[in-house]
Amino acid sequence: MGLKSVLAKPFAAYIASHVRKESLKAIQNQQKWLNRLLSRGSQTAFGKDHQFDKIHSYTEFKNHVPVRDYEALYPYISRAIDGEMNVLWPGKPLYWSKTSGTTSGVKYIPITNESIGYHINSARNALLCYIAETGNSRFVDGKLIFLSGSPGLERKNGILTGRLSGIVNHHVPAYLRSNQMPSYDTNCIDDWEQKVDAIVKETLHENMTLISGIPPWVQMYFDKLMLASAGKPVKDIFPDFSVFVYGGVNYEPYRAKIERSIGKQIDSIETYPASEGFIAYQDSQETNALLLLTNNGIFYEFIAADEFYSENPTRVALEDVELNKNYAVILNTNAGLFGYNIGDTVKFVSKNPYRLLVTGRIKHFISAFGEHVIGEEVEHAVLHAAARCNADITEFTVAPQVSPADNELPYHEWWIEFGKLPENTEVFATEVDLALQQKNIYYSDLRKGNILQNLKIRILKKSAFIEYMKSEGKLGGQNKVPRLSNNRVIADKLKQFMVQNP
């Protein structure tokens, strides 16, 4: 055991103890951060426009600060981008984090001197909590790979600008720099396929002990890695590989194929970072729920997902959330975002401490017939069917078919790339359909009322989603395939990759 892994254990025990103590002060922490954010924001243009100096309670805060998405907040962001001081937060942002845009194209999310440390320390603390619980610190002595976007940064009116993963790359602690892979030059390769090929060459003969990234892109790395080593499983290529860190998507649909590629089960740590703030991470291997970080520069609000689009949706603070209820997440941060709809949905499974599951995106659903099927439900259904039918899933997405040919009843259409095909696709489709009916009563009513027919499976060829994402200019990095669409834009583009059902 090396010096780093020896020293990591007492430090991990200290940090894990601190994390536990903080988790039990969640409501106090949240009140502290609301007060602090209002105080710091009161001298900004946004704070003056919203009369922060007159706000003395959460109720008053809600009356003064509406919920906004990026487009609604953009008039303020654009002023800061143009170089104006004290717009959303005192001074200027330290960085602009570029993320995939919606109607406004690329989004620029501010990261400040006050917020950057929470991004870095939260990622570190997730690993330290794992070490403290499991005693496994040996991975700290080996090579650590972070499959992420380019660390290359450009300047926008004097402010460094780039992907969040690239920004964070510049803040990796010095004691881990010698362990970090890939090299800076390789990490700066823009073309994702070329980049993964270069990473394979760099890492093939290294002692990789920790691998981090979004599951579909890690799977792509594993596929190329095994191809370069005559089909050896990853455990034979990297015998000391023991920890997989991921975020951005639910790991479960990918787990079976990834573990088959590795050749064994492996410990995994889920994290919930965003450009807007580091929200939660898995602090224990005993649960798949994530610990909400309540002392992390963020004051959280929540809106029940089923009333999010109503005229006056109810906003609640953390102390008023209910367990097992789907909420849209609203952030107020020390980077100057207030009443900001991040677009994610979560449900709490524990209040002591506050732990949650990420359930999807508020805009990703199917409700073409009033069913309002969400990401958590389709993931549950496909995993249930895969287990029953001895299949596994590489990637999938779902869309409605409202007007099928030949006067058929409408249906949900599932576009699936299998890692391992089910023996009988029709049985698989029925298992998915029944599982979805159990999770969503509205879908069940539509099926039993013969409004919808049984869903249909469209099998896609190998690497179909990689090709699709490449065609959209979204291959790799932090990009993810939407699980659900309420239209057929993605489905129609996937037709070219369909194979005949067996």
Descriptive report:
- By secondary structure, the chain is α/β, with parallel strands linked by helices.
- The protein has 2 domains: 1-363, 3-Layer(aba) Sandwich (Rossmann fold); 365-497, GMP Synthetase, Chain A, domain 3.
- The protein is built from 18 helices and 21 strands.
- Strands 6-3-7-8-9-10-11-16-15-14-12-13 form a 12-stranded mixed beta sheet. It has a 4-stranded mixed beta sheet with strand order 2-1-5-4. Strands 19-20-21 form a 3-stranded mixed beta sheet.
- It starts with a helix and ends in an 8-residue tail after the last helix.
Q: Could you say what the CATH architecture of the largest domain is?
A: 3-Layer(aba) Sandwich
Characterize the biggest β-sheet: 12 strands, mixed
How many separate helices? 18
Instruction: Estimate percent helicity.
Output: 25-40%
Strand order of the largest sheet: 6-3-7-8-9-10-11-16-15-14-12-13
What are the low-pLDDT stretches, counting only 5+ consecutive residues below 50? Answer: none
